[in-house]
Amino acid sequence: MITITDFNDSVLDLYARTPEVQLLRYREPKPGIFIAESPKVIARALDSGYEPLSFLMEPQDLETQGKEILARCPDVPVYGADQSVLNQLKGFSLTRGMLCVMNRKVLPSVEEVCRNAGRIAVLEDVVNPTNVGAIVRSAAALGMDGVLFTSGCSDPLYRRAVRVSMGTIFQIPWTMIDAQDWPQGTMTKLHEMGFRTAAMALREDSVSIEDERLRAEERLAIVLGTEGDGLAAQTIADCDYTVRIPMAHGVDSLNVAAASAVAFWQMGKPEK
After folding, report:
1. What radius of gyration, in Å, describes the C-alpha atoms of the chain?
2. Which of 243, 241, 238 is nearest to 200 (CA)?
3. Fewer Cβ within 10 Å of end Cβ, the chain: N or C?
4. Around 1, how many Cα atoms within 13 Å sit in the side-chain half-sphere?
């Protein structure tokens, strides 16, 4: 372990002083880097083939929760600092004592994500990283085979998004949709691959999420919109179904993360 005694040490720049957008563009036009937090999340990233560049941790964890992870990465620098230094690192208390800078991968194409999928989630301009992380976790847990993000979405590898997803972003195929391909270009690709599309929206012409036709679809893309305004009118028009979740007690809508969990559970894969 390489001990850091000064919070202003340049070694901590990536961990403490580099904005998320700069990490994303760190090697532009090549994929950049991101920071994974907590031993569980880091382990899931390693399992998915992400390459670590360095670790930052509390020295006492060298022989405890970090031991197994570091054994997998014997040539990667490990930086340690005492609590007085780490306390200056915003959010370190949420990391369960361990951070890791990792290389991003080249993203797959939409076709690659969808090729063997029966159910996919499509997120349009979901800008809150907490919501992105929560939706990804529900998608992985509730049977989605992949997730597509429009360019207006929060980056799924932002620290908060990864943390809220509990690292499930590394366990489900995903990619970003090129801005010029949304919505018409991507909708055309999905239809060509045999998908029917279901827009989650509160419209008078919508069908209930309990409609039996939805679950019976062999391949279905569930499309969810931005916080507040929901899906764009053009996106809804391009979808095969407009789907609503029945509400009680005069409630008019759900948070997009909560709505996603209901949608994924109810419109999951058809029974064989």
Report:
1. 20
2. 243
3. C
4. 19
Q: What pLDDT was estimated at residue 271?
A: 64
> Phi and psi for 263 in degrees, rounded to 5?
-65, -45
Gap between the Cα atoms of 185 and 180, Å rounded: 8
Whole-number Å distance between alpha carbons of 114 and 112:
5
Choice among 16-30, 55-69, 125-139 with the minimum mean pLDDT: 55-69
CB 44 within 8 A of CB 171: yes
Which residue, 135, 142, 143, is CA-closest to 169?
135
Q: What ranges in 79-219 are assigned the alpha helix state H?
A: 83-86, 110-114, 129-141, 159-165, 184-192, 212-216
**Amino acid letter at 114?**
C
Give 70's pLDDT tier (boundaries 50, 70, 90): very high
Q: What is the mean pLDDT of the chain?
A: 93
Other CB atoms within a 10 A radius of the CB of residue 33 amount to: 19
Look at the alpha carbons of 143, 221, 145, 255 in this order and tell me if their dihedral is positive or negative. negative
Report the C-alpha gap between 78 and 256 in whole angstroms: 38
Closest CA to 132 of 173, 161, 169: 161
Whole-angstrom CA distances from 103 to 32, 110, 133, 197 are: 6, 21, 19, 33
